[in-house]
Write a structure and sequence with these properties.
The complex is a heterodimer of chains A (about 1050) and B (about 575). Chain A contains twelve helices and 50 strands. Chain A is mainly β. In chain A, a hairpin with an 8-residue loop joins β18 and β19. The longest helix of chain A has 14 residues. Chain A is globular, with a radius of gyration of 32 Å. The two termini of chain A are about 55 Å apart. The relative contact order of chain A is 0.11. With about 575 residues, chain B is mostly helical. Chain B is built from 21 helices and 14 strands. Chain B is globular, with a radius of gyration of 26 Å. Classes of the chains: A mainly beta (about 1050), B mainly alpha (about 575). The interface between A and B is large, with 129 and 131 residues.
Chain lengths: ~1050, ~575
């Protein structure tokens, strides 16, 4: 190793041999029908130099004189090595049904797939378009083993949780995105990429492949390359995609009680508690009953005709879910114009997406643009290029009511007796006793219809590549990531029943994030006999700055959209701002070595200096190494015809996570003139924090108004030793292909340990305010595997088919956590989070229902116990039920994720079906909470009529009670059910018009398709809610959607 | 070796590209200060101000200025209120003496209050250590500001002690490590009182009689607070909170200290009781020490008081939330007077008082919202039963002293809750008079207490100007007379004193702490519950356990953070 590195150094410094070269053009077609294969990969064997076939299947490639062949590959086809001899034009016919052998973009460099030694998932790019929300992240759900995505139905389509190989830290788990070589942690940059402009997506999963990204890599890296114009000999290609989608959440709705039934349930619950139902609900219902608490008998319940007795508000029987939701319509159009010559290429893409939103008065609108250009001179030895992504989007978000409750959850919980409108057509609200202090959610969403979140993204780079000597490429790239966020929040004054906001206000929150990345690399690829070297070295500097401004004004005389600008207000004003940033300075190198195409090895080193690390640990060092063995190339395998590929990979490495906050290491004193707990970190409860003062200003003069004297307060303790979180990983993988490549797949097993996880241990309050500091204190381990299998069927006549599946599993656990921090996680003094994931569930063990007072008397002492009440297990046998009787009973992360994708083709028809699911997951079923328990001020499900009574003793639903003295909604196994599911997520049927037909009208391709998403799903019987994928009732559910679309090119 | 070579390679490739690595990585936080710059003379007054500011940083779910949850709801004065027992369920646990249940809501109330008081203490200690470094020449106000900070520290420790009994005492000489090894039982009950007293004594010895900035502590606010402390300390408790003896020496100190306050001439009773509850009169003659609040002061919301932000009439359209802190029937009954205009010590709680016919103490219409009576001195908009949120559970009364009119310029609704810029008096002059009366009575010098109590009653009787209805009549039939010297025995005087404190400070929350101090919490509260649960079935499971419920449990998380160093209170 040492010698070869010396040799390398010598070569770098001295080698300057000019090499002759020539140009080969060609066409790649399907061997069967001579259809051109758009996007086929062409590489020069033994190098990473290559190109991609254009829309006509044509390519142009500059070859060094030494090259004798080109290698051509395409997804689903057998790769071919084609000798070129002296020919300048070749036609390559590929046979369907082969392994994947394309060029893979890795960190700062590329590799042939066959030479990979790390765990890299290559996304089948055809799937990225298969989403109606225009968000590529949603399309990836279930497609990539080891990439776990949770999503909601929010109009912007933002994914709510993205994990690569599980949760490896207790903090931020967001992956790093590298888009055209520019890094970003802003997932919106990726999520707003127009799918039709994406050339490739690779997911770097293990340490040996990701360690080139050092201290930012341990949550995984997603590498995206966007398309360029490609060579078309000056001809322009135009591609236009359009689609329209209808979205509906009807299949996700909860069954709830109507107005009269709710009265019956409230009566039962009241008499169970020994309380006259008229005391609590007499203003809403007339209860006609025998008034005998021993033998209560209900004759009739009628709803009082007016809400709170107000003649203007006739009582309703409102189904709030149907009031709040409508069919959402998404229109998505995008246009790409691309073209180029031998030396230059250009791609321009514009896209427009509009989502009218299922939740009424919400919506999302996005305009995207992309310019990718490349020009070269001196036979391609000097290149200059630009990749630029422009996004502007506007979202009208989900609103909350005056008390902070989001409208999607109010659509479930609000009493049905409140009508939507009163007699005068005004929005109705709660009046009189018996109602919660919650608002009409439609009114809230209507009042917030002028709210908006504007996001503007400018993302891209300019780069140059200089090849002073053949094979030695210097690349310099200046990347820019500018994300601005503008949130206009108008709070109109209103009166809604007894709930009012007397004073209107406007809050403008603007935030600007600016990241500049300057990357300089040297690559050198060379062979020494049978020894092949790809060498990379580079430096990178990243400067991030974030500035936030929040301005607030009160009292606007007129409530129109145009009037809500800050200067139009006449009331109280306040303004706050903050500024933060970080710097990262890195050096890195990578050597890939191959011997005789059989033995592969790679070594990666990265050194990161970060302004986030304390002075004692300013620089982190992240090494990795991997080896690969192409067993199939060994002599003894040459006669084993059944096995076409067999490669064993193994890698070890160290990667880091520097998402520890820009200022975590500093001891800080701040002036906090008049801040609220909600405006600074470390609050107590997000809603109440909006009313909790943490300021340093005080009216020491007793003036009661005007500018106040103010001071400083400590807000954070310093830790000069603070450093990155370190992940050490071992990955072992096997790539295989059988039956001449028809059956291909790979398997990876990993085990990793993340140590030095950043935590902020609480200390005894007596130590005082602002004394908390971050330390590198916790350790987690994580083990798992990924498997994918694809079968590319041999065409049968006009019928083609392929099937691919993937499986992934991980299990993470916390192994070290300082004692004083443990109380912040699930557990009690005895059972702790150690040995568990932070996403595991903890609580009491429900053990049926007490049937009689005698059972209660004989059971361990349980406060609130009684006949009909849930019995909890006395786990520690101390004859009383207390916090020590809790245990871990499940996890909210799945034991297994899996997906299956089927592609069928018949003549001009194409069909794809994609399903994915999770297994081995248990968790909280929100509908049990809604359906099995009554609450005096919220609507509930019909399950309450099956509750336990002395007559109905077999029920699993405890006797109705409003007092809940047994605290039955505590965390317990009662709510823990199997939340596994399998979903058919996507079915698409397309028809491509024959070329001879469309050729006459000047088109080169025209495809029509229909698509259904979230088609149907299977779930466990024990899960009573509509959809286990909906984990949060505060957000809009994932809809079922129907899309019709058109792809045209000419 | 391998590294070195690679790095040399990299340096060749990149040395010209990045000029200075260390400068590039040196990012400094924006808008912040270092601990060194805090300690300069220029910033000394600012850190003192920050310590005062902590007084007003209590929160709705962790109050420090208003003790309505701990002192009023836990006593016989009031119910939690709101929309049923499950609405802010944590407070229901306090009301029902159910604090041994698994803590709901992740530390709401007691644990947060504990934390907030230690924030006051730490801000005071940070300021003290900054000032200690300065000379008198550098900071001429050094002595006064030091005394003020020790007053603030004394206040926070006193409140903690009143709530939790055994708490760690922290001063500026302790490092963080030393604080973490300081148990809540390092000092005995009596030693802890004395330790807190040294701060008040220092303040008393070093503060000027008056401060031009009225929000600051002065000599006599320190005297009054020290008197309050000595009065609590005088009732000596055993390990199970049982009052064993009353220390005459401490009582005598109460007399001496209150003399100082009274003879200062700084203070007197407001002519109208109402003035204590209207922000326009804040920092007036009756306020001995108060937490200051302000509005339209350039802060995000105003430095408003939200600790009682839930406690406004829910059904009143001008408020719209949330109906907490409802007076008990027992308290309403206590305002009834007999034919002599005196409280009905033993018979007040028979039946429910009928406000249309009964003779009552004037203070009822300053304290309780009653159907048809002016609410908060506004005859145009009388209180209505329709304003009550959950009469089925909590009856038809609403607390009123801490509330303000929605039209007040010191009132602000934010979200569902209500903040006001009305100060919260920690000690008002009426308290000084009644503490002095209490000391005299327990010293057997009850004759000296009589004029003090009657001074309070005379002011009450005269306070009818602001409570009148629109037609100029009184909403209730007032009859408040002074006590006569004839029957003024020690036993009678003690009853009179206890009743007077209840009426004078009703819903201002000293009630529970008074009962514990006097050693009568268990009999008083359990006999209250026996009757009250027949009126309000939600109380049917409530029972006060002597030897436990006098004090709050030490927050479990604090015991965890100190790895069991803190000892839990008995019974929990």
């Amino acid at each position: 190793m040492k010698n070869s590195l010396f040799a390398l150094l010598a070569l770098l410094l001295t080698m300057s041999v000019a090499v002759a070269q020539r140009v080969v053009t060609g066409t790649v077609v399907d061997a069967k029908n001579n259809e051109s294969l758009v996007g086929a990969n062409i590489v020069i064997p033994g190098t990473t130099t290559g190109t991609v076939a254009d829309v006509n299947g044509k390519f142009t490639l500059t070859l060094p004189a030494s090259a004798t062949a080109i290698q051509v590959s395409f997804i689903g086809y057998l790769a071919q090595t084609v000798p070129v001899g002296n020919a300048s034009n070749v036609t390559v016919s590929l046979v369907a049904g082969g392994e994947l052998a394309e060029v893979v973009v890795l960190g700062y460099t590329t590799s042939r797939k066959q030479d990979l030694t790390g765990a890299v998932a290559i996304v089948d790019i055809a799937t990225v378009n298969k989403t109606s929300t225009g968000n590529p992240m949603q399309a990836l759900q279930g497609r990539v083993p080891g990439l776990y995505i949770e999503k909601t139905g929010t109009p912007s389509g933002d994914a709510s949780r993205i994990l690569i190989r599980g949760a490896n830290t207790l903090g931020n788990t967001d992956p790093l995105y590298i888009i055209d070589g520019v890094p970003t942690k802003v997932s919106q940059v990726f999520q707003s990429l127009n799918p039709s402009t994406i050339q490739s997506i690779q997911v770097l999963k293990d340490a040996s492949s990701a360690s080139i990204y050092g201290s930012r890599a341990s949550n995984g890296v997603i590498i995206v390359t966007t398309k360029n114009g490609a060579n078309t000999d000056g001809k322009l290609n135009v591609q236009f995609n359009t689609s329209i989608t209808a979205q509906s959440e009807k299949s996700q709705r909860y069954k709830l009680l109507n107005a009269a039934d709710r009265g019956r349930a409230l009566w039962q619950a009241s008499v169970n508690d020994g309380v006259d139902p008229a005391d609590g609900f007499g203003q809403i219902y007339n209860f006609d009953w025998n008034r005998d608490f021993r033998n209560p008998r209900l004759n009739n319940v009628t709803v009082r005709p007016f809400v709170g007795g107000d003649q203007n508000v006739p009582v309703g029987d409102t189904d709030w879910q149907s009031v709040m939701y409508q069919t959402g319509v998404i229109t998505n159009n995008d246009l790409s114009i691309s073209g180029g010559t031998k030396n230059s290429s250009l791609l321009i893409n514009v896209g427009h997406l509009n989502n009218t939103g299922m939740l009424r008065y919400t919506g999302y609108n996005r305009l995207t643009g992309r310019i990718n250009g490349l020009t070269s001179k001196f036979d391609g030895r000097f290149k200059l290029g630009v990749n630029l992504q422009l996004v502007t989007s506007k979202e009208v978000p989900t609103a909350t009511d005056l008390g902070g409750s989001p409208t999607p959850s109010l659509a479930i919980s609000l009493a049905p007796t409140i009508p939507v409108y009163d007699k005068n057509g005004e929005f109705a609200g709660p009046i009189g006793a018996g109602y919660s202090d919650r608002n009409n959610p439609l009114y809230m969403q209507y009042l917030n219809r002028w709210d908006k979140i504007d996001r503007n993204i400018v993302f891209g780079n300019i780069f140059t590549e200089i090849e002073p000597i053949r094979g030695l490429i210097f690349r310099s790239s200046l990347g820019l990531n500018s994300t601005s966020y503008y949130n206009k929040n108008i709070e109109q004054s209103f009166q809604n029943g007894f709930i009012a906001r007397p004073l209107n206000s406007l809050t403008i929150n603007t935030s600007r994030f600016m990241s500049l990345t300057w990357t300089n690399t040297l690559r050198y690829n060379f062979d020494l006999g049978a020894h092949r070297f790809n060498v990379l070295a580079g430096v990178e500097s990243i400067r991030d700055n974030q500035n936030d401004i929040i301005s607030y004004r009160e009292n606007f005389a007129v409530q129109t959209e145009d009037f809500f600008v800050l200067s139009a207000a006449s009331g109280n004003a306040s303004s706050n701002g903050s500024s933060t940033g970080s710097r990262l300075l890195s050096q890195f190198a990578r050597v890939d070595y191959g011997f005789g195409d059989r033995y592969l090895a790679s070594v990666t080193l990265r050194r990161d200096g970060s302004s986030r690390f304390g002075p004692e640990n300013r620089y982190g060092f992240f090494p990795a190494a991997a080896i690969g063995w192409r067993i199939d190339r060994e002599g003894f395998m040459q006669n084993v015809k059944a096995i076409s590929t067999l490669k064993l990979r193994a890698g070890v490495g160290r990667i880091g996570n520097q998402d520890i906050g820009d200022l975590a290491r500093f001891g800080l004193f701040e002036p906090r003139y008049g801040l609220l707990a909600s405006q600074v970190p470390n609050g107590h409860q997000p809603f109440f924090d909006q009313f909790a003062q943490v300021g340093t200003a005080y009216d020491i003069n007793g003036a009661k108004t005007g500018t106040l004297p103010s001071g400083f307060v400590q807000t954070q303790g310093a830790n000069d030793a603070l450093k990155w979180e370190t992940t050490d990983e071992l990955n072992v993988g096997l790539d295989f292909a059988f039956l001449n490549g028809s059956l291909a797949g790979s398997f990876d097993y990993f085990t990793r340990q993340t140590s030095g996880i950043l935590i902020k241990p609480p200390v005894a309050s007596a130590v005082g305010e602002g004394q908390l500091r971050f330390i590198n204190g916790a350790t987690k381990t994580n083990k798992g595997f990924e498997l994918n299998l694809s079968y590319f069927g041999k065409p049968v006549g006009n019928f083609t088919y392929s099937v691919s599946t993937n499986f992934a599993r991980f299990r993470d656990k916390v192994t070290v956590l300082p004692e004083e921090v443990r109380s912040a996680y699930a557990g009690n003094g005895v059972t702790t989070i150690i040995g568990r994931s932070q996403l595991d569930l903890f609580g009491y063990v429900a053990d049926g229902i007490f049937q009689s007072q005698e059972e209660v008397n004989n059971a361990p002492r349980q406060p609130g116990a009684g006949p009909g009440r849930i019995r909890y297990k006395d786990l520690n046998g101390d004859n009383k039920i207390d916090p020590l009787d809790q245990e871990f009973f499940g996890t909210s992360l799945p034991g297994l994720e899996y997906g299956i994708n089927v592609n069928l083709g018949f003549k001009n028809f194409d069909f794809s079906l994609f399903g994915s699911g999770i297994a081995g997951r248990t968790g909280f079923d929100n509908y049990i909470f809604v359906n099995n328990f009554i609450r005096g001020r919220e609507n509930v499900g019909p399950g309450v009529f099956d509750a336990w009574t002395p007559q109905n003793t077999t029920s699993t639903i405890p006797a109705l009670t409003l007092a809940d003295v047994n605290n039955e909604t505590r965390s317990s196994t009662y709510f823990n059910v199997n939340t596994s599911y399998f979903k058919i997520r996507n079915i698409q049927l397309g028809y491509t018009l024959p070329k001879d037909v469309i050729g006459k009208v000047g088109l080169s391709a025209l495809r029509l398709y229909g698509m259904v998403e979230n088609v149907f799903w299977l779930k466990s019987k024990s899960f009573s809610g509509p959809d286990p994928e909906r984990v949060d009732i505060s957000s809009i559910p994932v809809p079922r959607s129907f899309t019709f679309g058109l792809n045209v090119s000419f | 070796m391998k590294n070195k070579m690679l790095i040399s390679l990299l340096v060749m490739a990149g040395s010209s590209l990045v000029s200075s690595c260390s400068d590039f990585l040196d990012y400094q936080p924006q808008g912040t200060l270092s601990s060194e710059s805090i300690k300069s003379a220029d910033n000394a007054d600012a850190v003192v101000t920050a310590a005062y500011a902590a007084l007003g940083n209590g929160e709705m779910i962790g109050p420090t200025a208003s003790m309505w949850v701990y002192g009023s709801v836990r006593s016989d004065d009031a119910y939690k209120g709101g929309g049923g027992v499950a609405d802010v369920q944590d407070v229901n646990l306090y009301e029902q003496y159910n604090l041994t249940q698994p803590q709901q809501g992740d530390g709401w109330m007691g644990p947060y209050t504990w934390e907030q008081f230690y924030r006051i203490i730490s801000r005071a200690n940070v300021a003290l250590s900054s000032i200690n470094n300065l000379t008198d020449a550098q900071f001429p106000l050094k002595k006064v500001r030091t005394a003020e900070l020790r007053f603030l520290r004394g206040h926070a420790h006193f409140m903690l002690k009143m709530l939790f009994k055994y708490v760690p005492y922290v001063d500026e000489t302790l490092t963080s490590e030393q604080i973490l090894t300081t148990s809540n039982r390092t000092l005995t009950n009596d030693q802890l009182w004395d330790k807190i007293a040294t701060d008040f004594q220092f303040a008393f010895d070093n503060l000027p009689p008056k401060q031009t900035q009225v929000g600051r502590a002065n000599k006599f606010s320190a005297a009054a607070y020290l008197a309050k402390l000595r009065l609590y300390q005088a009732y000596e408790q055993d390990d199970n909170h049982k009052v064993t003896t009353i220390n005459r020496d401490k009582l005598q100190q109460v007399v001496t200290l209150t003399s100082a306050v009274i003879s200062s001439g700084n203070y007197s009773l407001f002519p109208d009781f109402a003035q204590n509850f209207i922000p326009e009169f804040d920092n007036g003659v009756e306020s001995v020490f108060a937490v200051q609040y302000s509005i339209n002061d350039g802060t995000t919301l105003g430095r408003l008081q939200f600790e009682t932000g839930l406690n406004y009439p829910h059904g009143a359209p001008q408020y719209g939330c949330c109906g907490f802190h409802q007076p008990s029937q027992n308290l309403a009954n206590a305002f009834g007077t007999d034919a002599n205009g005196l409280p009905k010590f033993d018979t007040f709680n028979t039946g429910s008082i009928e406000f249309k016919t009964a003779t009552v103490d004037t203070r009822v219409d300053h304290s309780i919202g009653i159907d048809g009576h002016p609410y908060k001195y506004n005859p145009a908009l009388p209180f209505s039963n329709s304003w009550i949120r959950d009469a089925g559970t909590y009856g038809f009364f609403q607390s009123m002293k801490e509330q303000q009119l929605a039209t007040s310029s010191f009132y602000k609704k934010s979200g569902p809750f209500i903040g006001t810029a009305k100060n919260i008096d920690i000690i008002r002059y009426a308290d000084v008079l009644l503490m002095r009366a209490e000391a005299f009575i327990e010293l057997g010098q009850q004759a000296q207490a009589l004029p003090l109590i009657n001074q309070i009653r005379a002011r009450a009787a005269a306070s009818t100007g602001r409570v009148k209805k629109a037609d100029g009549t009184n909403p209730s039939n007032y009859l408040v007379k002074p006590y006569e010297a004839a029957s003024w025995t020690q036993t009678y005087a003690r009853k009179a004193l206890q009743f007077e404190r209840r009426l004078e400070f009703a819903l201002e929350s000293p009630r529970f702490f008074d009962l514990v101090r006097w050693g009568i919490a268990e009999p008083t509260l359990n006999s209250y519950l026996t009757v009250e649960k027949t009126r309000r079935p939600f109380l049917s499971g409530a029972r006060f356990t002597a030897g436990r419920d006098e004090y709050l449990p030490i927050p479990q998380r604090e015991i965890t953070f100190t790895k069991g160093l803190y000892k839990q209170n008995p019974g929990y």
